[in-house]
Design a protein that fits this description.
Blueprint (H helix, E strand, L loop, with lengths): L7 E3 L11 H4 L2 E4 L5 E5 L8 E4 L4 H11 L5 E6 L4 H4 L11 H14 L4 E6 L4 H13 L4 E5 L13 H10 L4 E4 L9 H11 L3 E3 L2 H5 L12 H14 L4 H12 L6 H8 L3 H7 L3 H21 L8 E2 L5 E3 L14 H11 L6 E7 L4 E8 L2 E5 L6 H15 L36 H4 L4 E3 L5 E3 L4
Parallel strand pairs: 4-5, 5-6, 6-7, 7-8, 8-9, 11-14
Antiparallel strand pairs: 1-2, 2-3, 10-11, 12-13, 13-14, 15-16
Helix pairs in contact: 2-4, 5-6, 9-10, 12-13
């Protein structure tokens, strides 16, 4: 059976969404159907980054490899993760009890890609079984094998079995990468070589110690943690890393300092901006995001054809391939809000949104009706709210109306509303006010002069 893969690769050449940040960030993104970035990389690390995956299916694993192989230096299969989220799916350390499946997965990948394939395992209860397994793995043609020197049930507080790694290294002809030495053996750069010699391995894989302080790889010694964390935060902002992942990594660095004033600020942070402010980088965040927004605005101005022109299908629905990106709009301004305000000024009925969910991937699509004309995006969204915002964008853009985006030009040149010919309403005498001018605060002015919160915002 051919594996069906829902992850898509996106680059500046394949992006079809006007609000896509790929070209702005100069990245290569691999995204899920709901536009969630699963893996992001860039040309700078193409010959360095090794893509590690968890899998229990050879064909699906090969499909993933063929998707990413042109953007990474190598492929690694994690066969040592003891966490339940891996083992329940037959991945990670669960594979250690099924050598036939291990052989099938690795053999399929080695034959199916030109990139070097490696794997990471844990040791088995007996040395004899461990050596038997690694010999089978070697015969699949993998380029190297990483060995975490603990058993499935053992955790970091248990001592790493250096002697078992050494026995494996003495048995195999391919490189053996020693893993599991953080804290007990590795606390500074010099310790990495000492651990390699103690295990007889070709090289060392460092995990926890690198998360605690990534500067452990510098030969001239560890950098102050504050300096390392600030540098990491700058990279995270520049490459639009999700704040929850940034926060997790910083918590790993702070460790016992999480109860400090700075640690409490980090724990309370609910955005990248708040993280930056906790580390004295508020100005950097503001300037960097402004630069990113400016590049996006410039890109949008140069490539309007990527979005395509609105087109009316046989059912009379006007469609366009667009999506809503909250980051492209000022705070407290949305396309729905702009469209609602404009309809009120034009004396049109309030927009009506009809939303459906697609069962196969649980994505949403919304149709908005204005003066008996329907508008819809051809792209699906991960939530009902996003789908409605996208439908509002189609309506606004198809009518040449501003939608409140950052850097949007003055609306004075935009054309008036084009109502369908069958519009039963009489002539409107009030001069239309485009929504871009009305979206400066989240309140609308009623006919009696009072202000009320916008509906459906």
């Amino acid at each position: 059976m051919t594996a069906q893969l829902k992850i898509q690769k996106r680059t500046s050449k394949t992006a079809s969404d006007k609000n896509n940040r790929i070209e702005v960030l100069s990245t290569v993104d691999f995204v899920a159907p709901d536009d969630r970035v699963v893996f992001r990389t860039c040309a700078k690390e193409q010959n360095r980054v090794v893509f590690q995956m968890g899998t229990s299916d050879a064909e699906r694993a090969l499909a993933v490899v063929r998707l990413v192989e042109n953007d990474v230096a190598g492929i690694d299969v994690n066969m040592g993760c003891p966490k339940e989220y891996s083992t329940k799916g037959g991945m990670g350390a669960a594979l250690l009890s099924d050598p036939d499946k291990i052989e099938k997965i690795l053999g399929t990948l080695v034959r199916g890609t030109r990139r070097p394939v490696t794997c990471k395992i844990r040791i088995l209860p007996s040395l004899e079984d461990t050596l038997s397994l690694v010999k089978r793995i070697e015969r699949t043609g993998v380029a190297a094998i990483a060995v975490h020197g603990r058993k499935h049930e053992e955790r970091p507080q248990h001592p790493v079995h250096c002697e078992v790694i050494k026995a494996i290294a003495g048995t195999l002809s391919i490189p053996v990468i020693a893993n599991g030495g953080s804290h007990d053996h590795i606390q500074q750069h010099l310790d990495i070589e000492n651990f390699r010699q103690a295990t007889g391995a070709s090289s060392v894989m460092v995990a926890r110690a690198a998360m605690w302080n990534p500067s452990i790889f510098l030969k001239d010694g560890l950098r102050p943690l504050e300096e390392v964390m600030q540098k990491y935060i700058r990279y995270a902002v520049q490459y639009d890393n999700h704040y929850t992942n940034t926060k997790y990594c910083l918590c790993q660095m702070l460790r016992e300092q999480l109860e400090s004033p700075q640690g409490r600020l980090l724990h309370a942070a609910q955005s990248s901006q708040e993280i930056c402010e906790a580390f004295g980088l508020g100005t950097f965040y503001k300037e960097t995001t402004q630069e990113i927004d400016a590049r996006r605005v410039e890109l949008l101005a140069k490539t309007p054809e990527e979005v395509g022109e609105p087109a009316e299908d046989t059912s009379g629905v006007i469609k366009m391939a667009v999506k809503f990106d909250r980051r492209a709009y000022p705070p407290q301004i949305t396309p729905k809000m702009c469209l609602l305000e404009w309809c009120r000024r034009e004396k049109l009925a309030q927009p009506v949104y009809e939303t459906v969910q697609r069962p196969v991937d649980r994505l949403f699509c919304s149709v908005v009706t204005i003066a008996e004309q329907k508008y819809q995006s051809t792209l699906w969204d991960k939530s009902k709210k996003l789908a409605e915002q996208t439908a509002a964008i189609v309506c606004l853009r198809s009518q040449g109306l501003p939608e409140g985006q950052l850097g949007e030009e003055s609306p004075s040149h935009k054309r008036k509303w084009e109502a369908p010919a069958q519009d039963p309403g009489g002539p409107r005498t009030q001069k239309p006010v485009p929504p871009g001018e009305l979206c400066k605060k989240p309140f609308s002015t009623l006919d009696n002069g009072e202000e009320s919160p916008l509906e459906g915002w």
